[in-house]
Amino acid sequence: MKRALILAMLVALATTPSASAGNGRVLAVKFDAEVNPATQRWLSDRIDEGADYDALVILLDTPGGLEESMRKIVRSELAAKEPIVVYVSPNGARAASAGVWIAEAADVLAMAPVSNIGSSTPITSTGGNIGTDLKRKILNDAAASLRNLARAHGRNAKWADLAVRKASNLAADEALRMNVIDLIAPDLPTLLQRIDGRTVKLRGFTLHTANDPVTTKEMGFFTRLLSTLIDPNLLSLLFLAGIGGILFEVFHPGVVLPGALGAVSLVTALFGFSILPTDWAGFALILLGLALLVIDAHVVTHGALTLSGLVALAVGMLMLFHDAPPPYEVSVWFVIAVTGTLGGFMAFALGKAVQARRRPSAMPAMVGAEGVARGDGFVAVRGELWQASTDDGTPLEPGAHVRVDDVEGLRLKVHRV
Questions:
Q1: Taking the CA atoms of the chain, what radius of gyration do you get in angstroms?
Q2: CA 234 and chain centroid, separation
Q3: Which of 26, 121, 219, 390 is the most exposed place for a label (fewest CB within 10 A)?
Q4: Can you tell me the distance from the alpha carbon of 100 to that of 62, in angstroms, rounded to the nearest whole number?
């Protein structure tokens, strides 16, 4: 009986979640960016990496961001194999909007003395209020989600509701007094000392962080670059510039620079497309629109292909990120500006081409002009070099003076003077 009891206690101890399963180190992750697919992927990877540490501390300073990305981070926090500590720091930092969910999902939530948390009311992509019926559904869903996170961790669920419905925002001392956060700490070493030995409510971890060495990780250059580049308007512009540069190089080989810059722009745009949900029908329409514009520059259609190309281009750009969340959709005004600029340029070019076609030919004026033979069947007339032949077919000696009798295409008929 005693042996069975000892065995049961050992099994219980082995299966009880505890931060002591780590390696005596703490992983500190600095998250000071917007919440979007690029930063979400980076943070979720760091949470997975933190499984070998006693605890993972997210040094949070964010204005918020995309709901879907925020929910993925929250799921990563709740499923983490290590205790998650969110520390809103340094002084002057904030956990706003989507950042409140990331903070409330932590096993321990701390703040620097001069920091704030709150303002979690959902808004539209343009920063305006949501329509009445839709607003009610979104607010109720968001409020229930944040209340649930706060209640599960033993924090103030009533304030969580106010943060969503009334955009309530609290300073650190106010948040501590209202049980919105767990503690205030002036710096990370002090925080690790104060939470040592604490057993968290939701997942039962016991923290052992006092005097642990800290490994700090920050977002790399490419994560920050991608976070900037996933602006859909910028991606669309880079894509158009990339295709345009490559086409220019194809039709004017040897220039090099437009083709090189176009290739860089295109690869950068495709990199961003891999992060945002891209509608490939819109992608195909953009390619079709550009192809029609190029064809119309070489075929006489009196602007019909240009008009079709601009319509395909506009529809394609609007469709390109149609499935992306609202802040990551292409602006209608941006589409109007791009297509209007291209349309104006094509109208100018076609107008010049029509004027050139209607201008009387200068060829008849060549008849009667005099020139000098240059050899190899060429003559110089009025500063231009022309192919020429005589009526009797005899070759012209270099230096011989000739007069133009007729123009046949791009060849002159001459006789010696």
A1: 35
A2: 7
A3: 390
A4: 9
Q: Are residues 280 and 213 in the same domain?
A: no
Q: What is the pLDDT of residue 355?
A: 63
- N- to C-terminal Cα distance for the chain? 132
Nearest to 186 by CA among 135, 120, 111: 111
Question: Residue 159: is its pLDDT beyond 60?
Answer: yes
**pLDDT band at residue 144 using 50, 70 and 90 as cut-offs:** very high
**Is 30 buried (19+), middle (13-18) or exposed (0-12) by CB count in 10 A?**
middle
Amino acid at 108: V
User: Looking at the structure, do residues 214 and 106 belong to the same domain, yes or no?
Assistant: yes
Segment 76-96, tens digit of pLDDT: 999 999 999 999 999 999 999
Q: Which residues contact 365 (CB under 8 A, 6 or more apart)?
A: none
Whether 259 and 350 map to the same domain: the answer is: yes
> Of the residues 220, 246, 263, which one is the last residue of a structural domain?
220
Task: Give the domain extent around 381.
Answer: 364-416
| Structural contact between residues 346 and 296, judged by C-beta atoms closer than 8 angstroms | yes
Confidence grade of residue 5 (pLDDT, cut at 50, 70, 90): very low
Same domain, 26 and 113: yes
Closest residue by Cα to residue 338 from 232, 248, 249:
232
Residue-level length of the chain: 417
Please check whether residue 195 is in contact with residue 9, taking contact to mean a CB–CB distance below 8 angstroms. Answer: no
Q: Is the pTM of this model over 0.90?
A: no
248 lies in some domain: yes
Q: Are 43 and 220 a contacting pair, CB within 8 Å?
A: no
Q: Could you read off the pLDDT of 163-180 as tens digits, one per residue?
A: 998 889 999 999 999 999
Q: Which CATH number is 34's domain given?
A: 3.90.226.10
On whether both 168 and 305 belong to a single domain, the answer is no
Q: Is 1 part of a structural domain of the chain?
A: no
Residue 126 has pLDDT above 50, yes or no: no
Q: Summarize pLDDT for 204-238 with one digit per residue, the tens.
A: 899 999 989 999 999 999 888 888 887 888 888 88
